[in-house]
């Protein structure tokens, strides 16, 4: 995980949908992993994403996140205001 891999918040749309839930193109995404794992809405910080799925063609991007039947990814979110790192791995 190199420093260049971290991005300034906000999260990308796909990562936001998988972590916090929401709607896109009239489809509801009710995963809301943030609630289950105590990850608050963070406004000031950085994030890192790695798609570890064996069919991923671009591990640093989330473009194929909803194109498969399973999720294998790592997400880290650093909250500058509270100096807290949230680290999340999902393998289904």
Question: What does this protein look like?
Answer:
This protein has 92 residues and is an alpha+beta fold. The protein has one domain. Helices cover 14% and strands 34% of the residues. It has two helices and six strands. A four-stranded antiparallel β-sheet has the order 1-4-5-6, with no helix packed on it. Strands 2-3 form a two-stranded antiparallel sheet. β5 and β6 form a beta hairpin. It is globular. The chain starts with 6 loop residues before the first strand and ends with a strand.
Helix and strand succession? Answer: EHEEHEEE
Taking all residues together, what is the mean pLDDT?
Answer: 92
Q: Write down the overall geometry.
A: globular
Distance between the termini: 22 Å
Q: Which helices and strands, and how do they pair?
A:
Layout: E1 7-8, H1 13-20, E2 22-24, E3 27-29, H2 33-37, E4 45-51, E5 72-79, E6 84-91
Antiparallel strand pairs: 1-4, 2-3, 4-5, 5-6
Any descriptors?
92 residues, globular, 6 strands
In short:
The chain has 92 residues and is α+β, with helices and mostly antiparallel strands.
């Amino acid at each position: 995980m190199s420093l260049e891999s971290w991005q300034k918040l906000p999260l990308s749309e796909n990562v936001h949908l998988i972590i916090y839930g929401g709607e896109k193109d009239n489809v509801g995404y009710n995963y809301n992993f943030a609630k289950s794992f105590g990850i608050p809405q963070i406004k000031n910080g950085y994030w890192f994403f790695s798609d570890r799925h064996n069919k991923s063609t671009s591990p640093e991007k989330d473009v194929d996140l909803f194109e498969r039947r399973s999720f294998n990814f790592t997400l880290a979110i650093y909250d500058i205001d509270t100096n807290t790192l949230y680290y999340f791995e999902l393998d289904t």
